[in-house]
Amino acid sequence: MAALGALAPLSARAQAPAWPTRAIQMIVAFPPGGQADVTARPLASALERVLGQAVPVVNRAGAGGIVGSASVARAAPDGYTSLLALSSLAMLPESERIQGRVPAYTVEQLAPVARITADPTVLVVPANSPWRSIEEFVADAKRRPGAITYGSAGNYSTLHVAMAMLTGAAGIDLLHVPFQGGGPALTALLSGTLDALASGPGPALSHVKEGRLRALASWGRERIPGFEAVPTFIELGYHDVEFYIWTGFFVPVATPAPIQARLREALRGLCEKDEGLRRALDAAGSPIAYQDGEAFERFFREDSARLVRAVQRIGKVD
């Protein structure tokens, strides 16, 4: 009997289906060019090498991230559909409730596998704008309430909440212009149809270096690599203006534990040892800030609670 008992785990493993045997979709709930997309593409390429299957990045944009996130929450929990999400993941269901709608998904439908990056946002304006400091920006906004526009990835998105924190702390009124993602908002800023944007550092970095955009301040507790000359809002006396765009890897909550463990193992190995991935994310201005297991679950729970409170402070948006 003891021998049979010892063989049982081996038999179970032998009968378990092999995974992966086909492509694993990585859903990005935003258009190309935004922070999630900037992280997803080199990560997917690296995962392909480790898992031995294609990992296509699928941009499924809509409703500020709701459409793509909901599609993964409802997907078959077989390990072949994943989500590379932003910190807005928890804010969007709460925004739906505030608007009087039934949320298209809840965070309980998704299992947090690993955090990949965690970047503070940075306030950028066109290089030909009149503002060379946050002091000038705030002073102008106070002189012209509602005249200065800023973009976001949609109502209640990370970029919207970050700017709402600033407008509340500075006592200014700006005109919010929502887009379908951070990429389109950044394009609008570059074209001159927007005045300002709270951007992830990765998408903005090359444009700042090329002299097309000017960075005024960042939402981090410390200055951002690549933006060393840019002060933080905390340095400037806005002590409650602190915000991060993080990217995290999620799967449907019922995805079998062995598959989640395999994904976690692959992601951890890549983030710790893959120099190509590290260089790609560093070059994009979005360095690796890896977490998994209980640490990421705790971070996700605490950060989500803080962001949900911020959305509740914004209230209903007409």
TrEMBL record:
It comes from the Bacteria. InterPro entries: BUG, Bug_dom1. SUPFAM superfamilies: Periplasmic binding protein-like II. Pfam families: TctC. Signal peptide: none annotated. Belongs to the UPF0065 (bug) family. This is Tripartite tricarboxylate transporter substrate binding protein. It comes from Muricoccus nepalensis.
